[in-house]
Amino acid sequence: MRQKPPIDSCGGEPVDTLSRRALLRAGVLGAGAMSVGGVLTLPGTAHAAPAIYHPFGGYSITCSWECHLARGSAGGVDFGMGVGTALPACGAGTVQNIAYNGNAGHTVTIHHGEGWRSQYLHLSQFSLANNTYVGAGTIVGLSGGAAGAPGSGSSTGPHLHWHMLDPNGNYVNPLVYIGSNPGGRQVYEAASNAGWRALPVSGSGGAVMASGLAVINVSGTKIIYSSNGGQIFEAASSTGWRNMSTGIQGAQGTALAALNLNGEKLIYSVVGGYVHEASSNNGWRNLNSGIGGVGTSSIAAIALGGVKYVYSIVGGYVHEAHSANGWRNLNTGVPGQAVAAITLGTTKILYVLNGGSVYEAASNAGWANVWTGISGVGGGSIAALNLAGEKLIYTTSGNYVFEASSYNGWRNLNSGVRGSTAAVLSNGGVKLIYAA
Protein backbone atom coordinates (compact mmCIF):
# COMPACT_ATOMS: atom_id res chain seq x y z
CA MET A 1 0.00 0.00 0.00
CA ARG A 2 1.46 3.39 -1.04
CA GLN A 3 2.32 5.68 1.82
CA LYS A 4 0.30 8.87 1.92
CA PRO A 5 2.37 11.76 0.55
CA PRO A 6 3.45 14.54 2.91
CA ILE A 7 1.02 17.36 3.56
CA ASP A 8 1.62 20.64 1.76
CA SER A 9 2.16 23.74 3.94
CA CYS A 10 -0.98 25.18 2.40
CA GLY A 11 -2.90 22.15 3.58
CA GLY A 12 -2.79 20.28 0.27
CA GLU A 13 -0.97 17.27 -1.06
CA PRO A 14 1.79 17.48 -3.66
CA VAL A 15 0.28 17.69 -7.12
CA ASP A 16 2.62 15.32 -8.95
CA THR A 17 3.16 12.09 -7.07
CA LEU A 18 3.88 8.60 -8.33
CA SER A 19 0.60 6.75 -8.53
CA ARG A 20 0.20 2.98 -8.86
CA ARG A 21 -0.94 3.60 -12.43
CA ALA A 22 2.29 5.50 -13.17
CA LEU A 23 4.38 2.69 -11.71
CA LEU A 24 2.55 0.11 -13.82
CA ARG A 25 2.95 2.29 -16.90
CA ALA A 26 6.67 2.54 -16.21
CA GLY A 27 6.89 -1.24 -16.39
CA VAL A 28 5.23 -1.18 -19.82
CA LEU A 29 7.52 1.60 -21.03
CA GLY A 30 10.64 -0.35 -20.18
CA ALA A 31 13.17 -0.94 -17.45
CA GLY A 32 14.53 2.25 -15.90
CA ALA A 33 11.88 4.48 -17.43
CA MET A 34 9.32 6.40 -15.40
CA SER A 35 6.35 8.54 -16.42
CA VAL A 36 5.86 11.44 -14.02
CA GLY A 37 2.95 13.80 -14.65
CA GLY A 38 2.67 12.41 -18.17
CA VAL A 39 6.36 13.00 -18.97
CA LEU A 40 8.67 10.11 -19.76
CA THR A 41 12.02 10.38 -18.01
CA LEU A 42 15.10 8.22 -18.23
CA PRO A 43 17.87 7.98 -15.60
CA GLY A 44 20.96 9.80 -16.72
CA THR A 45 19.18 11.73 -19.47
CA ALA A 46 20.33 15.36 -19.79
CA HIS A 47 17.55 17.95 -19.88
CA ALA A 48 18.08 21.57 -20.87
CA ALA A 49 17.21 23.96 -18.05
CA PRO A 50 14.42 26.38 -19.03
CA ALA A 51 14.71 30.15 -18.64
CA ILE A 52 12.70 31.09 -15.53
CA TYR A 53 12.26 34.43 -13.79
CA HIS A 54 10.71 35.54 -10.50
CA PRO A 55 7.35 37.28 -11.13
CA PHE A 56 6.46 37.68 -7.45
CA GLY A 57 9.34 39.72 -6.06
CA GLY A 58 6.93 42.45 -4.98
CA TYR A 59 5.09 40.13 -2.56
CA SER A 60 6.21 38.95 0.85
CA ILE A 61 7.00 35.29 1.42
CA THR A 62 4.59 33.92 4.01
CA CYS A 63 6.02 30.40 4.07
CA SER A 64 9.48 29.67 2.67
CA TRP A 65 10.76 26.42 1.17
CA GLU A 66 12.28 25.53 4.52
CA CYS A 67 8.97 26.36 6.22
CA HIS A 68 7.21 23.90 3.92
CA LEU A 69 9.73 21.15 4.56
CA ALA A 70 9.51 21.67 8.32
CA ARG A 71 5.75 21.15 8.09
CA GLY A 72 6.14 17.89 6.19
CA SER A 73 5.53 19.28 2.71
CA ALA A 74 7.30 18.15 -0.44
CA GLY A 75 8.23 21.80 -0.94
CA GLY A 76 6.98 25.14 -2.17
CA VAL A 77 7.12 28.89 -1.60
CA ASP A 78 4.02 30.85 -0.51
CA PHE A 79 3.51 34.51 -1.38
CA GLY A 80 0.92 36.62 0.41
CA MET A 81 -1.40 38.37 -2.05
CA GLY A 82 -5.04 39.30 -2.28
CA VAL A 83 -7.54 37.07 -4.06
CA GLY A 84 -7.71 37.94 -7.76
CA THR A 85 -4.08 38.98 -8.19
CA ALA A 86 -2.92 38.37 -11.78
CA LEU A 87 -0.33 35.59 -12.03
CA PRO A 88 2.32 35.96 -14.77
CA ALA A 89 3.93 32.83 -16.20
CA CYS A 90 7.41 32.45 -14.76
CA GLY A 91 8.66 31.13 -18.10
CA ALA A 92 7.55 30.12 -21.56
CA GLY A 93 5.60 26.90 -22.02
CA THR A 94 2.25 25.20 -22.50
CA VAL A 95 -0.53 25.67 -19.97
CA GLN A 96 -2.40 22.81 -18.30
CA ASN A 97 -5.31 23.69 -16.00
CA ILE A 98 -6.26 21.23 -13.26
CA ALA A 99 -9.56 22.21 -11.63
CA TYR A 100 -10.38 21.15 -8.06
CA ASN A 101 -7.05 19.35 -7.75
CA GLY A 102 -7.64 17.91 -4.29
CA ASN A 103 -6.17 19.90 -1.43
CA ALA A 104 -4.11 21.93 -3.93
CA GLY A 105 -7.29 23.41 -5.40
CA HIS A 106 -7.27 24.94 -8.86
CA THR A 107 -3.76 24.37 -10.22
CA VAL A 108 -1.97 25.72 -13.29
CA THR A 109 0.94 23.72 -14.64
CA ILE A 110 3.27 25.38 -17.15
CA HIS A 111 5.13 22.73 -19.17
CA HIS A 112 8.43 24.37 -20.11
CA GLY A 113 9.69 21.48 -22.21
CA GLU A 114 12.00 18.52 -21.64
CA GLY A 115 10.01 17.54 -18.55
CA TRP A 116 10.42 20.78 -16.57
CA ARG A 117 7.24 22.20 -15.06
CA SER A 118 6.15 25.06 -12.84
CA GLN A 119 2.95 24.92 -10.79
CA TYR A 120 0.76 27.57 -9.19
CA LEU A 121 -1.73 26.31 -6.56
CA HIS A 122 -5.00 27.56 -4.99
CA LEU A 123 -6.12 29.73 -7.94
CA SER A 124 -9.49 31.46 -7.97
CA GLN A 125 -9.68 31.54 -11.76
CA PHE A 126 -7.96 30.21 -14.87
CA SER A 127 -7.20 32.72 -17.63
CA LEU A 128 -6.30 30.50 -20.59
CA ALA A 129 -7.46 27.32 -22.26
CA ASN A 130 -5.54 24.09 -21.90
CA ASN A 131 -2.60 23.67 -24.30
CA THR A 132 -2.22 27.43 -24.78
CA TYR A 133 1.41 28.34 -25.41
CA VAL A 134 2.54 31.34 -23.36
CA GLY A 135 5.58 33.54 -23.13
CA ALA A 136 7.16 34.58 -19.86
CA GLY A 137 4.94 37.17 -18.18
CA THR A 138 1.67 36.12 -19.81
CA ILE A 139 -1.15 36.05 -17.25
CA VAL A 140 -2.21 32.44 -16.68
CA GLY A 141 -4.72 32.87 -13.85
CA LEU A 142 -5.78 34.75 -10.74
CA SER A 143 -4.66 33.97 -7.21
CA GLY A 144 -7.04 32.61 -4.59
CA GLY A 145 -6.65 30.66 -1.38
CA ALA A 146 -9.45 32.17 0.68
CA ALA A 147 -10.67 29.54 3.14
CA GLY A 148 -13.59 27.58 1.74
CA ALA A 149 -13.68 29.41 -1.58
CA PRO A 150 -14.00 27.43 -4.84
CA GLY A 151 -10.55 26.46 -6.09
CA SER A 152 -8.82 27.10 -2.77
CA GLY A 153 -8.49 23.44 -1.85
CA SER A 154 -7.57 23.24 1.81
CA SER A 155 -5.83 26.62 1.89
CA THR A 156 -6.72 28.68 4.96
CA GLY A 157 -5.91 32.16 3.63
CA PRO A 158 -5.25 34.13 0.43
CA HIS A 159 -1.86 33.37 -1.07
CA LEU A 160 -0.06 31.78 -4.01
CA HIS A 161 1.91 28.55 -3.69
CA TRP A 162 4.71 28.13 -6.29
CA HIS A 163 7.01 25.21 -6.91
CA MET A 164 8.82 23.60 -9.83
CA LEU A 165 9.25 19.97 -10.85
CA ASP A 166 12.30 18.61 -12.65
CA PRO A 167 12.10 15.94 -15.38
CA ASN A 168 12.33 13.22 -12.71
CA GLY A 169 9.39 14.60 -10.75
CA ASN A 170 11.52 16.05 -7.94
CA TYR A 171 10.26 19.21 -6.28
CA VAL A 172 12.54 22.18 -6.99
CA ASN A 173 12.72 25.50 -5.15
CA PRO A 174 12.15 28.06 -7.95
CA LEU A 175 14.15 30.75 -6.14
CA VAL A 176 17.17 28.46 -5.80
CA TYR A 177 16.72 27.37 -9.41
CA ILE A 178 16.76 30.97 -10.64
CA GLY A 179 19.89 31.65 -8.59
CA SER A 180 21.60 28.65 -10.17
CA ASN A 181 20.42 29.46 -13.69
CA PRO A 182 20.76 33.24 -13.91
CA GLY A 183 19.09 34.99 -16.78
CA GLY A 184 16.95 38.02 -17.33
CA ARG A 185 14.67 39.29 -14.61
CA GLN A 186 11.24 40.88 -15.01
CA VAL A 187 11.41 44.64 -15.61
CA TYR A 188 9.11 46.88 -13.55
CA GLU A 189 8.23 50.54 -14.11
CA ALA A 190 7.57 52.87 -11.19
CA ALA A 191 6.57 56.55 -11.42
CA SER A 192 7.21 59.26 -8.84
CA ASN A 193 3.69 60.64 -9.28
CA ALA A 194 2.18 57.24 -8.40
CA GLY A 195 4.04 56.74 -5.13
CA TRP A 196 6.66 54.59 -6.85
CA ARG A 197 4.11 51.81 -7.32
CA ALA A 198 5.97 49.22 -9.42
CA LEU A 199 4.07 47.71 -12.34
CA PRO A 200 5.39 44.88 -14.54
CA VAL A 201 6.40 45.86 -18.06
CA SER A 202 4.76 43.35 -20.35
CA GLY A 203 3.48 43.40 -23.90
CA SER A 204 1.90 41.08 -26.44
CA GLY A 205 5.10 39.01 -26.56
CA GLY A 206 5.19 38.54 -22.79
CA ALA A 207 7.25 40.16 -20.06
CA VAL A 208 10.24 42.38 -20.73
CA MET A 209 13.15 40.66 -19.00
CA ALA A 210 16.66 41.96 -18.52
CA SER A 211 20.07 41.32 -17.05
CA GLY A 212 21.29 44.65 -18.42
CA LEU A 213 18.98 47.66 -18.70
CA ALA A 214 18.99 51.08 -20.37
CA VAL A 215 16.19 53.57 -21.10
CA ILE A 216 15.68 56.67 -23.24
CA ASN A 217 12.87 59.11 -24.02
CA VAL A 218 12.12 59.86 -27.67
CA SER A 219 9.50 62.62 -28.06
CA GLY A 220 7.48 61.33 -25.11
CA THR A 221 7.84 57.66 -26.00
CA LYS A 222 9.57 55.65 -23.31
CA ILE A 223 11.96 53.04 -24.73
CA ILE A 224 13.58 50.19 -22.81
CA TYR A 225 16.68 48.39 -24.05
CA SER A 226 17.32 45.10 -22.32
CA SER A 227 20.05 42.50 -22.64
CA ASN A 228 18.96 38.93 -22.07
CA GLY A 229 20.95 35.84 -22.99
CA GLY A 230 23.45 37.97 -24.91
CA GLN A 231 20.75 39.49 -27.11
CA ILE A 232 19.50 43.07 -26.95
CA PHE A 233 15.79 43.87 -27.20
CA GLU A 234 13.81 47.08 -27.63
CA ALA A 235 10.38 47.72 -26.11
CA ALA A 236 8.50 51.01 -26.53
CA SER A 237 5.56 52.38 -24.57
CA SER A 238 3.97 53.50 -27.85
CA THR A 239 3.67 49.88 -29.02
CA GLY A 240 2.33 48.50 -25.74
CA TRP A 241 5.79 47.38 -24.64
CA ARG A 242 6.00 44.74 -27.37
CA ASN A 243 9.53 43.37 -26.93
CA MET A 244 11.41 43.18 -30.24
CA SER A 245 14.90 41.85 -30.91
CA THR A 246 17.30 44.42 -32.35
CA GLY A 247 19.36 41.59 -33.81
CA ILE A 248 22.33 42.55 -31.65
CA GLN A 249 23.98 39.48 -30.13
CA GLY A 250 26.99 38.64 -28.00
CA ALA A 251 26.42 41.34 -25.37
CA GLN A 252 28.37 40.54 -22.22
CA GLY A 253 27.44 41.04 -18.58
CA THR A 254 25.12 43.83 -17.49
CA ALA A 255 26.94 46.68 -19.25
CA LEU A 256 24.36 48.49 -21.39
CA ALA A 257 23.75 52.15 -22.21
CA ALA A 258 21.57 54.06 -24.65
CA LEU A 259 21.25 57.57 -26.10
CA ASN A 260 18.72 59.62 -28.01
CA LEU A 261 20.73 61.95 -30.26
CA ASN A 262 18.29 64.14 -32.19
CA GLY A 263 15.99 61.19 -32.81
CA GLU A 264 18.75 58.72 -33.60
CA LYS A 265 18.62 55.87 -31.10
CA LEU A 266 22.02 54.51 -30.05
CA ILE A 267 22.88 51.40 -28.04
CA TYR A 268 26.22 50.72 -26.35
CA SER A 269 27.18 47.23 -25.19
CA VAL A 270 30.30 45.21 -24.49
CA VAL A 271 31.15 42.40 -26.91
CA GLY A 272 34.43 40.50 -26.62
CA GLY A 273 35.78 43.07 -24.17
CA TYR A 274 35.15 46.00 -26.53
CA VAL A 275 32.47 48.66 -26.46
CA HIS A 276 30.23 48.38 -29.52
CA GLU A 277 27.86 51.02 -30.86
CA ALA A 278 24.65 50.29 -32.79
CA SER A 279 22.39 52.89 -34.36
CA SER A 280 18.75 52.78 -35.39
CA ASN A 281 19.90 54.70 -38.49
CA ASN A 282 21.98 51.75 -39.72
CA GLY A 283 19.61 48.90 -38.87
CA TRP A 284 21.27 48.24 -35.51
CA ARG A 285 24.53 47.11 -37.14
CA ASN A 286 26.78 46.61 -34.12
CA LEU A 287 30.16 48.25 -34.72
CA ASN A 288 33.30 47.97 -32.61
CA SER A 289 34.29 51.39 -31.31
CA GLY A 290 37.81 50.17 -30.55
CA ILE A 291 37.36 50.91 -26.84
CA GLY A 292 38.90 47.77 -25.33
CA GLY A 293 39.76 46.14 -22.03
CA VAL A 294 36.50 47.28 -20.45
CA GLY A 295 34.59 45.59 -17.67
CA THR A 296 31.25 43.99 -18.47
CA SER A 297 29.30 45.26 -15.45
CA SER A 298 28.78 48.95 -16.24
CA ILE A 299 29.02 51.57 -18.98
CA ALA A 300 27.40 54.98 -19.38
CA ALA A 301 26.75 57.29 -22.32
CA ILE A 302 25.80 60.96 -22.70
CA ALA A 303 25.65 63.50 -25.51
CA LEU A 304 26.90 67.08 -25.26
CA GLY A 305 27.04 69.56 -28.12
CA GLY A 306 26.38 66.79 -30.62
CA VAL A 307 29.35 64.76 -29.36
CA LYS A 308 28.78 61.27 -27.97
CA TYR A 309 30.66 60.35 -24.77
CA VAL A 310 31.10 56.82 -23.43
CA TYR A 311 32.32 56.00 -19.92
CA SER A 312 33.65 52.55 -19.09
CA ILE A 313 35.60 50.82 -16.34
CA VAL A 314 39.13 49.77 -17.34
CA GLY A 315 41.47 48.36 -14.70
CA GLY A 316 39.29 49.73 -11.89
CA TYR A 317 39.22 53.31 -13.22
CA VAL A 318 36.61 55.24 -15.18
CA HIS A 319 37.73 56.04 -18.72
CA GLU A 320 36.19 58.57 -21.10
CA ALA A 321 36.02 58.27 -24.88
CA HIS A 322 34.14 60.45 -27.31
CA SER A 323 33.17 60.40 -30.95
CA ALA A 324 35.07 63.62 -31.74
CA ASN A 325 38.46 62.07 -30.89
CA GLY A 326 38.00 58.73 -32.63
CA TRP A 327 36.94 57.05 -29.38
CA ARG A 328 40.41 57.40 -27.85
CA ASN A 329 39.87 56.08 -24.31
CA LEU A 330 41.41 58.29 -21.62
CA ASN A 331 41.69 57.61 -17.90
CA THR A 332 39.79 60.16 -15.79
CA GLY A 333 41.66 59.03 -12.69
CA VAL A 334 38.38 58.27 -10.94
CA PRO A 335 38.35 54.78 -9.37
CA GLY A 336 35.15 52.78 -9.44
CA GLN A 337 33.23 49.58 -10.12
CA ALA A 338 30.16 51.15 -11.74
CA VAL A 339 29.47 54.48 -13.41
CA ALA A 340 26.57 56.75 -14.37
CA ALA A 341 26.76 60.08 -16.19
CA ILE A 342 24.66 63.20 -16.74
CA THR A 343 25.13 66.64 -18.22
CA LEU A 344 24.39 69.87 -16.35
CA GLY A 345 24.68 72.77 -18.75
CA THR A 346 28.05 72.24 -20.42
CA THR A 347 29.43 70.23 -17.51
CA LYS A 348 29.78 66.46 -17.63
CA ILE A 349 29.18 64.83 -14.26
CA LEU A 350 30.07 61.27 -13.26
CA TYR A 351 28.57 59.31 -10.38
CA VAL A 352 30.76 56.40 -9.44
CA LEU A 353 30.18 53.48 -7.11
CA ASN A 354 33.36 52.43 -5.32
CA GLY A 355 33.60 50.24 -2.23
CA GLY A 356 29.93 50.68 -1.39
CA SER A 357 30.14 54.49 -1.49
CA VAL A 358 29.03 56.94 -4.19
CA TYR A 359 31.28 59.70 -5.49
CA GLU A 360 30.70 62.68 -7.77
CA ALA A 361 33.25 63.97 -10.26
CA ALA A 362 32.72 66.91 -12.63
CA SER A 363 34.60 67.79 -15.80
CA ASN A 364 34.76 71.48 -14.82
CA ALA A 365 36.59 70.51 -11.61
CA GLY A 366 39.21 68.36 -13.31
CA TRP A 367 37.34 65.19 -12.35
CA ALA A 368 38.08 65.84 -8.66
CA ASN A 369 36.39 62.93 -6.89
CA VAL A 370 34.10 64.04 -4.06
CA TRP A 371 32.23 61.70 -1.74
CA THR A 372 28.48 62.40 -1.77
CA GLY A 373 28.04 60.96 1.72
CA ILE A 374 26.17 57.96 0.34
CA SER A 375 27.62 54.72 1.72
CA GLY A 376 26.62 51.17 2.50
CA VAL A 377 25.44 50.49 -1.04
CA GLY A 378 25.18 46.72 -1.35
CA GLY A 379 24.37 46.42 -5.05
CA GLY A 380 26.46 47.05 -8.14
CA SER A 381 24.02 49.23 -10.07
CA ILE A 382 24.02 53.02 -10.34
CA ALA A 383 21.96 55.43 -12.45
CA ALA A 384 21.60 59.21 -12.51
CA LEU A 385 19.24 61.90 -13.75
CA ASN A 386 19.25 65.68 -14.23
CA LEU A 387 15.73 66.92 -13.67
CA ALA A 388 15.59 70.68 -14.25
CA GLY A 389 18.87 71.16 -12.38
CA GLU A 390 18.15 68.71 -9.59
CA LYS A 391 20.78 65.97 -9.62
CA LEU A 392 19.44 62.53 -8.69
CA ILE A 393 21.30 59.30 -7.98
CA TYR A 394 19.76 55.82 -7.97
CA THR A 395 21.49 52.82 -6.42
CA THR A 396 20.42 49.32 -5.39
CA SER A 397 20.89 47.62 -2.06
CA GLY A 398 19.14 44.65 -0.45
CA ASN A 399 17.14 44.24 -3.67
CA TYR A 400 15.63 47.73 -3.37
CA VAL A 401 16.23 50.89 -5.40
CA PHE A 402 17.30 53.98 -3.43
CA GLU A 403 17.04 57.61 -4.52
CA ALA A 404 19.24 60.50 -3.38
CA SER A 405 18.84 64.13 -4.43
CA SER A 406 21.27 67.05 -4.47
CA TYR A 407 18.35 69.07 -3.07
CA ASN A 408 18.28 67.07 0.17
CA GLY A 409 22.01 66.76 0.79
CA TRP A 410 22.17 63.34 -0.91
CA ARG A 411 20.03 61.71 1.77
CA ASN A 412 19.61 58.19 0.41
CA LEU A 413 15.96 57.08 0.61
CA ASN A 414 14.44 53.70 -0.15
CA SER A 415 11.93 54.10 -2.99
CA GLY A 416 10.30 50.78 -2.13
CA VAL A 417 10.87 49.62 -5.71
CA ARG A 418 12.41 46.15 -5.78
CA GLY A 419 15.30 45.31 -8.08
CA SER A 420 19.02 44.63 -8.31
CA THR A 421 19.59 46.78 -11.39
CA ALA A 422 17.94 50.07 -12.31
CA ALA A 423 17.71 52.68 -15.06
CA VAL A 424 15.94 56.04 -14.92
CA LEU A 425 14.44 58.72 -17.13
CA SER A 426 12.05 61.65 -16.87
CA ASN A 427 8.90 62.18 -18.91
CA GLY A 428 6.89 65.37 -18.57
CA GLY A 429 8.56 66.16 -15.25
CA VAL A 430 7.76 62.71 -13.83
CA LYS A 431 10.64 60.53 -12.63
CA LEU A 432 10.48 56.93 -13.79
CA ILE A 433 12.46 54.01 -12.36
CA TYR A 434 12.91 50.85 -14.40
CA ALA A 435 14.11 48.01 -12.22
CA ALA A 436 14.84 44.33 -12.70
From TrEMBL:
InterPro entries: Cell_wall_metabolism_enzyme, Dup_hybrid_motif, M23ase_b-sheet_dom, TAT_signal. It holds the Pfam family Peptidase_M23. It comes from the Bacteria. Residues 75-174 form the M23ase beta-sheet core domain. GO terms for molecular function: metalloendopeptidase activity. This is M23ase beta-sheet core domain-containing protein.
